[in-house]
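[scheduler] slot 2 assigned
[scheduler] job type: sequence-to-structure, two independent chains
[scheduler] chain ordering preserved from manifest
[runner] begin chain α
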Amino acid sequence: MSLKMMNRTTKITGLFNIRYPLVQGGMVWCSGWRLAAAVSNCGGLGLLGAGSMHPDTLQEHLQKLKAATSRPFGVNVPLFYPEIGAIMDIIAAAQTPVVFTSAGSPKTWTGWLHQRGIVVAHVVSSALFAVKCEQAGVDAVVAEGFEAGGHNGREETTTMALIPAVRRATALPLLAAGGIGSGRAMLAAIALGADGVQIGSRFAISQESSAHPAFKDMVIKSGEGATMLALKKLSPVRLLRNEFFAQVSAAEKQGASEPELATLLGKGRAKLGMFDGDLVNGELEIGQVAALFDDVPTVSDIMSAILSEYETARCEMNNLSL
């Protein structure tokens, strides 16, 4: 991974004190300590996905993560989390260097985290919210496009349209997310104005991911068009098509109300599918880019492939004349 261009300090590498401008998404039921440690040890920024962890579980994962890597790491925290105060206290007590927040106002916790010396990035789906992040004092923004897996922006703006819009709206360090799973996609995002990338789905289907093997197998057997957005009346989420998705789709076509959809969703659907491996009744969150995956490699192999392909594509672009 000794890539000349990648070895220079950038806005992202300098901010997070990492080698490469590449962050692993903090995905529920996928991003445990093994995945985060592996990414950090390879020169990226590994994130724990606190959205699927009770406070005691997060504390355990932080302890194991700190024992497994001496490099910077972070925690992704959805701000609607019901035990948010306890989660933040644990993060601060563990001297976590970076926190990525999402699904809520960055004003709520950014100042509190800064007072404890923690770098803050916030996930947005529009240029408008990127500006609000800058006003709230965050250190970086993650602009996540419509292609992304899991919970998605209501604007349905694709990554290719979103990144230049956010770049024009703010000078904050900018990570691109959504539909990025290769070195060529990474180069494209940087060409559009991003300073680095956040990658989720490719790491969700890695050996170190805590997702169930049956879920990983279903993802690599899926093809183009295998994911769709659902539950738009609640919170848009991109899912693999399965029996649960078919039930949601039928209910939405029949005009189901928000409470009716909430009842159908119930509790623990994502855990049931992604962690427990129930491919029929579970909620199976993954991005559109998963259609390109046909294996379950190690994090080290993923990082090497992405960075090598990035460098190859960059050299090709340097030789291109119009």
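[runner] end chain α
[runner] begin chain β
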Amino acid sequence: MADKKSELGAGWWAKNLEDVDREVARLAALCKVRLLDPGVIERVLNKDVTVCGTQNQRAFDKLRQGLMMHYHVRAKAAGAIGEAATQEVINEIVANIQKRLGKSLGGKP
């Protein structure tokens, strides 16, 4: 019975993370930010607009807020389902987003 509860919890957290990350990916594509390249997330969090390939301050601000929300939800998920399970969920989400958007978000070649 306890396994079913944790599986349901993992699914719930996965959906929440996927919703946030899908929006982050959409905004990153809109801003032309290669979010998965080394150091780029930190630069966005530090309000460095030079990582953008376009000038859209409003979208950049929303991207930054989305990233902060990702880390908030990630921390809550890790507390609920564990760090390893949370990382597995995030890896799957990133892989799915990369399939949809190709290499526009950067990352490993």
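[runner] end chain β
[qc] chain β: Residues 1-5 have pLDDT under 50 and may be disordered.
[scheduler] slot 2 released
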